[in-house]
Amino acid sequence: MAKETGNEKKFLIVIGILAGLLIAIMAMVSLSHPKPYFNVDGITVTPMPLEGTNRTYYSFPISFVIGSTLYNEGMLVKVDPRKLENVTVSVNRQYFLSREPIVILFDPEAPPRIVESMYEIKRVGRILNMQLGMAITHESNESENRNVSVLNCNDTLDGMRILYLNGNATETRVYEDGCIKIEAPGYDELEKATDAFIWQWMLAIKVDNK
Fold it and tell me: What's the pLDDT tens digit per position in 78-92?
């Protein structure tokens, strides 16, 4: 009996060692294959490579309340949210909580890719069931037949807010100066500034469902 008990102990020790090795191997494999998601500011972000391109979008869930109704939606940004921390966004939180209509102001002679930044903001507006319009800083040959208003950042519009996209600034930032200015020294950086604005917008309206 004693001999059998000793063998059983040896068997259990071997099993324990093998189990420990298996756990260690699984941990190493897990570390060598990072999870397909990460957390930023309490939000779970999932990278989504766009098939056939070098583009990766970043998807994340957002919960917000309109009236007494809780909404759960999915959002996308183009820039990794971890890379947005160095973009200054100086906007009063109440701006993000308001649902007053927004007019997106832009230079009519800006490169066509400015439409990408405009589309991102308009997508947020649709999800939040907000009215968004467009206006230009001045008339041009391309804009004469578009029937779009000509405004500047300091124009006062009853019940409307102005959001100015400027890709010819000296630095990448978002701030209030008569209107909300999203600025960058180029249209690649303007996408980054736009995503920083949207990210802070989502942080302001998100509901903690714990």
Answer: 999 999 989 999 999
